[in-house]
Amino acid sequence: MKVGFRSAFVLSLAVLITALVFITGGPFVSAQEGAGIKVIPAFIENEGGPIAPGTTLTREISITNVSPEDKEYFIYERDIIGVEDGGMPVFADENAERTGYEITDWISFQTEPITVKAGETVYFPITIAVPPTAPPCSHFGGVFVSAEPPRLREVGAGVGYEVGSIINLLVAGECVDDARIRSFATDKLFYTTKKVNFTAKLENQGNILIRPRGPLEIRNALWGKPSVIMVNESLAGVFPGTAREFEFTWEEEGIGFGRYEAILALAYDGRDGQKTIDAALVFWVFPLKIILPILGGFITILLVGYFLTRYYINQAVMRALGSRRITTYRYRRQVGISRLTFVFVTLMGAFAIFLIVLLILFA
Q1: Are residues 106 and 35 in the same domain?
Q2: Percent of the chain, pLDDT > 90?
Q3: Residue 136's domain is classified under what CATH number?
């Protein structure tokens, strides 16, 4: 009993990785392996564009027993009805409500358990008969191999204890390929370094799987060439009728300063070629570790200059009047400027110098 549980656990991990790679559009691989089972191919998809209703496809799946002992495997199909927030596909229960994206009714193959000797590979064909009345566009499902008999699972439950081939077919017809960027944001508005975390939520309003990919261009309002990073290089997919969140980070060497604009432009394959969606936002970078010491130095210089100038003026007036004290009114008339005006002019001058120094440092 303990061995069976351990095998089931490892099998579960294997198929989770399989499904995750499919939905995230990761690099194409030729096999999936776990718990002593290797299945080829990992994916069955369209070849040469959408297939016409009424078409029958035949594919071959191989099962290799890489364990040191003979095994009996069960084969069955499952539909994909959606994806969770993290991108993990949700597999349908047999009694789940129909979504229109199902494919298992089209699949036929040998349903009896297969015994595979240790180290041996067996091949079995599957047939995908697309009905003449098949709804157009994307259909999702899979053929799975398990060391345990199929069991009913609750709707929305995890993938289960299996390894298999994911099927993604695009049926010809009137497809809707509409998508939008529902939100595009940073985790905060002000930064002290050029390391910014972005989040974009993409909504697929159509009925085909889309894999949006494109550049994020970041421009500084004052100077410098725009920085560009690619978003979703792994071609992660967004399931029809769902929204998916993408997180990515822009990080660059050097000191940043001022207002930045981030422009996100994504492209995905539609029925009439590529379509694009875009969004933009603004954030600010202030390197406080540099700005605060400089500002503190200027404030210190300002205060010292103010008191030294005040002392000098007082001494000059007293010498002119023979060391006699004068009223504030007479002091202002003789000096020609009020202390408040002097402080304001000095502050503005120091601030202007401060800005000039910042421009020199960050240019």
Answers
A1: yes
A2: 20
A3: 2.60.40.10
Residue 153 sits in the same domain as residue 297: no
pLDDT tens profile 131-140: 998 888 888 8
Beta bridge pairs of residue 265? 278
Q: Which domain holds residue 37?
A: 2-171
**H helix or E strand, kind and range, residue 349:** helix 339-362
Task: Please give the Cα distance from 323 to 276 (Å, whole number).
Answer: 80
Nearest CA to 191 out of 218, 217, 153 is that of: 218
pLDDT digits (tens, 9 = 90+) for 107-129: 998 878 888 999 899 998 999 99
Q: Of the residues 120, 144, 171, which one is the last residue of a structural domain?
A: 171
Residue 260 to residues 286, 304, 360, Cα–Cα distance (Å): 11, 36, 19
Boundary-marking domain end, from 285, 304, 330: 285
Please tell me whether residues 292 and 257 are part of one structural domain: no
Question: Is residue 36 within 8 Å of 66, Cβ to Cβ?
Answer: yes
Residues 303 and 216 in one domain: no
Count of domains forming the chain: 3
Average pLDDT, the chain: 75
Q: Which residue has tokens 């207002």? A: 259
pLDDT per residue as tens digits for the range 198-249? 999 999 998 888 889 999 999 987 767 889 999 998 888 888 888 889 999 9
Written as six digits, the tokens of 219 are 């421009």
Maximum CA extent, the chain: 119
In this structure, how many other beta carbons lie within 10 angstroms of the beta carbon of residue 169? 21
Q: Is 193 exposed, middle or buried (0-12, 13-18, 19+ CB in 10 A)?
A: middle
Structure tokens at 274: 């590529």
